[in-house]
Amino acid sequence: MSKFRIGIVGYGNLGRGTELAIRQTTDAELACVFTRRDPSALKILTEGVPVYSVNDIAAHKNDVDVLILCGGSATDLPVQGPQLAEMFNTIDSFDTHAKIPQYFDSVDAAAKKGGNVSIISVGWDPGMFSVNRLYSSCILPEGENYTFWGKGVSQGHSDAIRRIEGVADARQYTIPVESAVEAVRSGSNPALTTRQKHTRECFVVAKEGADKAKIESEIKNMPNYFADYDTTVHFISEEELKRDHSGLPHGGFVIRSGKTGENKETSHVIEYSLKLGSNPEFTSSILVAYARAAVRLSREGAVGAKTVFDIAPAYLSPKSGAELRAEML
Amino acid sequence: MSKFRIGIVGYGNLGRGTELAIRQTTDAELACVFTRRDPSALKILTEGVPVYSVNDIAAHKNDVDVLILCGGSATDLPVQGPQLAEMFNTIDSFDTHAKIPQYFDSVDAAAKKGGNVSIISVGWDPGMFSVNRLYSSCILPEGENYTFWGKGVSQGHSDAIRRIEGVADARQYTIPVESAVEAVRSGSNPALTTRQKHTRECFVVAKEGADKAKIESEIKNMPNYFADYDTTVHFISEEELKRDHSGLPHGGFVIRSGKTGENKETSHVIEYSLKLGSNPEFTSSILVAYARAAVRLSREGAVGAKTVFDIAPAYLSPKSGAELRAEML
Questions:
Q1: How big is the CA angle at A23 (ends A21 and A28), to the nearest 5 degrees?
Q2: What is the pTM of this model?
């Protein structure tokens, strides 16, 4: 069997993670990388794999079986998603939760027009966390879902701090409140405010002469990002930031506690948790597994947009149904 | 929309749990119960639902959309599974791991002959634990899976003790070794023997005049069941057994630790865990969710045997795709 061919669109953290994840498969290969930069200036890890301008992507329709879109959800994917779904099978990690229905519809129309399969919002949240929310809600209809994130680096919150005047660089950690996690695990179904679930810890490099008190106040009072949380701000040097905060660890928990029995007297707790050494490397490993599913579904004649909810787990594996039943059931 | 109709075959712990789980759904109803006992002597919880002899089941082909088979894997399901799959859509919790491939084939042939859908080996292990082993193996191809069970009552091990001469009753708990679980969670990929992973604790009611030392020795040396484990035996009174050990709690963990990165320098740990107040009530809640999937797949024209690996998560939910994307992704 020939390997299925993956094209990467966008070579940032997620694109590099995807390139590495493909190396861990037995049935996929990296066909090419598409970039908005000057292709001749982009050096990738894999020898002999061509880098093309994303402007020329239509010319490579027959070179790849599935594209993994590694752009951002704010501005890249809303345009690229539908555009590329008309020409290719695609996978993306669109993660603006509130805009998913609208994004799904636009990608779905394009994918159907082109006769392709596009799996959107793949990753861990949305993604594996969503799948776990769904499974456990279906199993325990009377219960509550709780999602905690961290401890980990939030790139969106780090970026928000960097936009403040006087800030040279910053790293923000989202931290679940241990007592809240324990209360949920106990099955007591607590009502928790935003502030009770997570704290935020910021490591900030200030520019020379900047007003640190003003920066700290601007961070702590920033609406949506920080105002609803207990936030701690530490000013550190650029060297300390590089030395102690250069990784992108993350993780979190999805917990459902629910009741069964004649009088709801029986408690159950289902928990799914992730401890990730690198958020982009883990996310891209999920993207590659779903790329396999997209190619298979497309070969079976499926078309349109899908989410992780629509993909049977067996489609993610290179093994046959008989192998999976014998080895993993 | 009319509710889909479930028939229960076998009214033990699992059958009663299924009856209770159906009450928590909005889209399913209990149509009837089939029993090997005298139907007129069986009192079920739900008013007005008929109880029939399992011998008359063929006459009720049009009364149910899906049967949930609540018999045991040792002797009931190997016969009932294929027999009933030819007449009905079915769900079962066949859990003899080594015989799953053979059981799948026999149910598959029968279901295809009858034009039905049968989802086999549904529950939490096999079942939700299997699904989690599969997802995390696909995401992190280079890594190790670890499954721990407990703390919980193993009915098979309790039964094995009850068969020993001089034993009036018994309850056996399987207990994961905390230090082993912690070693796995740390991402160190330890090699663990059977003895290092679980201990077994037995509460035994001896018959009057029985030789307790002999019973204890027989338990601890029983091959397959106890000989490979550190086993503790406590002799207690019948009253104590009833008072302290009448529940059927269970649970466990599926953990995968894996590596990514250019030189496998990045560690990730995925963990799925269950803390169950009642093993049969939780298992039957899963059976009912998959019954929904079987009915839907059957209405779409699917036929044959399936496992949890073959079922997209969305099929388990009464909600539409659009609702799921808006609320749960």
A1: 90
A2: 0.96
